[in-house]
Amino acid sequence: MKIGFFDSGIGGLSVMNEAIRQLSGNEFLFFADKKNVPYGTKTKDEVINFSIEAVSFLIDLGAKAVVVACNTATSAAIVELRAKFSVPIIGMEPAVKRAVSLKDGKKTLVIATPITIAGQKLHELLVRTNASEVADLLALPRLVEFAESYEFESRRVREYLKSELAKFDLSEYGSLVLGCTHFNYFKDTLREILAPQTKILDGIDGTIKRLKSESGAVSLADKSSKVEYFYSKQKVNQRKELDRLAMYLKRLDVMREIE
Ligand code: DGL
């Protein structure tokens, strides 16, 4: 089965990487909207338009299911996408439910882009999971820029994260919910700053579970997976760019082990 993945940039690789692992033998199309990244600081209407363009491109290429591997696009556009297209459209949901199920008596900090933090979708999720009283929210838009320029371990990244997280008493938090797929690249630095008891939760497994149940995709382990990359409709085939994508994937393999 051809499965499309879409993000504003390279954050969505974190979701596709895991999907390839669990659904090997399928065909994967990855659309990074490099022309319009970042989404998190744009208007909702702009993100809706970018998302419709991207998803219709993936469906034209034969995608039978599309994963919106971007919390921001999910927050702004999932309703419009589902109304417009007939293939299953699977979005990202911050792992607030899992954070609540830890029942650790501690608070949860949700980090995401400004659109996601201000969006109705996250606020409805907090109400639905009875997390409104125990969750704090923080927008970290600069992490998206850092990730796009492959800047992960610099002093600037550390200082930005340290100063933003210093607004909270970190000893009070049992979990940190990554509400943006770009943030998966920073698990090591986040781990250094957070209190040891704070678990880092991403929404990747939940999304892949939904992808499997809604699309019926199964692993065909005897076949190899095929992956094609597009930067805003432009097929990526230069060696230099493919090598750069491989560097991102390598980093994600390391970050995957950090909780
Ligand atoms: N990767 C995105 C997310 O999950 C969006 C980042 C951005 O473009 O601002 O929210």
TrEMBL record:
It catalyses: L-glutamate = D-glutamate. The keyword Acetylation does not apply. Pfam families: Asp_Glu_race. Its EC number is 5.1.1.3. It is an enzyme of class 5 (isomerase). Keywords: Cell shape, Cell wall biogenesis/degradation, Isomerase, Peptidoglycan synthesis. Pathway: Cell wall biogenesis; peptidoglycan biosynthesis. GO terms for molecular function: glutamate racemase activity. Substrate binds at D7, S8, Y39, G40, N71, T72, T181, H182. The active site is at C70, C180. The keyword Hydrolase does not apply. PANTHER family: GLUTAMATE RACEMASE. Provides the (R)-glutamate required for cell wall biosynthesis. HAMAP family: Glu_racemase. Belongs to the aspartate/glutamate racemases family. This is Glutamate racemase.
